[in-house]
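Archive entry: two folds, one per protein. Generate the first.
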Amino acid sequence: MTDIFEEIVRLRRAGTPAALATIIATRGSTPGRETMRLLVREDGTFLGTVGGGCLEAEVFEAAKEVIRDEKTRTLSFRLTEFEAPENGLLCGGEVTVFVEPLVRPTLRIFGGGHISRVLARFAHEVGFRIEVIEDRESFATADRFPDAEVLEVGDLGELAAKLEIGPTTYVVVVTRGHKGDGEVLAGLARRAEPIRYLGMIGSKTKRAVLLRQLREAGVPEDWLAQVRSPVGLEIGARSHPEIAVAIVAEMIQVRRQG
């Protein structure tokens, strides 16, 4: 049987969101004991138990919410509340469960230039898992991006269309030119799901031009509305590190405040 802590390490390395529920206190007769744990993955699969029955069902639902909003929860149960004879939980005890997020969001950077290098470093420092996508092999190397866990080289538009995008995936488009940025946006627009954070480097004029082209190609207006460009918080950033700080700050704002 897979060890819960080994699975947590595997999930974090893969960038797969999960939540861990732990019994932190019991009183009286209860089916679960302190330190029993339930690990719930983003896809709804799980490992371990906190005692089973409808108590576990409620903890499972809470864990899915914790994955979504990354906010911890402390749940208290009086097992006398569960009075249906078939559930077997009419014990008279009390259980307290702490549910915590195990979410390591992924930042997928399209482009391996100067801003991308600083952005990858800063984002890694604040807890993001880094992926870099490039069409030039010499720009997607471990020397340039020591913090990246994925370095992918290929056609930018095709990779944008096929790489998995989850609810904790953040995307920044910063290729070497308008053409590459447009190809990435066109590839991303082929997907049905919204992207939690989608930023593109450049001016308001560039945004208007590229989005007009996508609009003319049939991309829905509500999809185009999610593109943040100019990207990052408006702090007057000029240098590459300042721009990277503005982008990371905006990603943190989205992550913590929605």
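Generate the second and append.
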Amino acid sequence: MMTKVKICCIQSIAEAQIAIENGAYAIGLVSKMPSGPGGIEESKIREIALWAPENIKTVLLTSLRNPLEIIAQQKYCQTNIIQLVDFQKISTYKNLRAELPNVQIIQVIHVLDDSSISESFAVAKYVDMLLLDSGNPKLETKELGGTGRTHNWQISREIVNEVDIPVFLAGGLTPDNVVSAIKRVKPYGVDVCTGVRSDDELDAEKVKLFVEIVNEYD
């Protein structure tokens, strides 16, 4: 099966076009975050999501933890996937399932140590996918993505082996290291933000190269 490519931190329809034309499976649209790059207004997320072709997965990245707020945000933004970048109560997943039955849920696991393995296993039964990233939600100002750092891929590989749902790998991926990451972790897909940007803009050549390298490896 081909490794899926999700291009995150999309800022505009023009950037979405670059990602899609170069083979992206999904585009990530970042709402307000406590830190990190890529955040855009919810009106812009909605505009891009409604524009996107039906075969493209549109992903709302949210740092919200109140289920009613998450539901309202998604209903406005109109993406077909929600990516929860912070820790959630189990009851939140159940509320989202009940109110948004046609919207898939990705839970981000910030890989810090071996505790991330048990966290992933506990969450996997309630969501559609996991995304393993290099943030740190325990800091005073939370890091919830877009760090440009890699993490311990051995832990990520153990998580992939442990759960029965698709797993995306994120965190510091670039055209130079993505093949090594895929070989090591064997993820369902890879997610990239800073690794395909130049001067805060999506770099079409880097996107093209990143996707080509992934596809050639597959």
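Annotation attached to the second fold: The chain has a mean pLDDT of 95. The helical segments are 13-21, 42-51, 67-77, 90-99, 115-124, 153-162, 178-185, 204-217.
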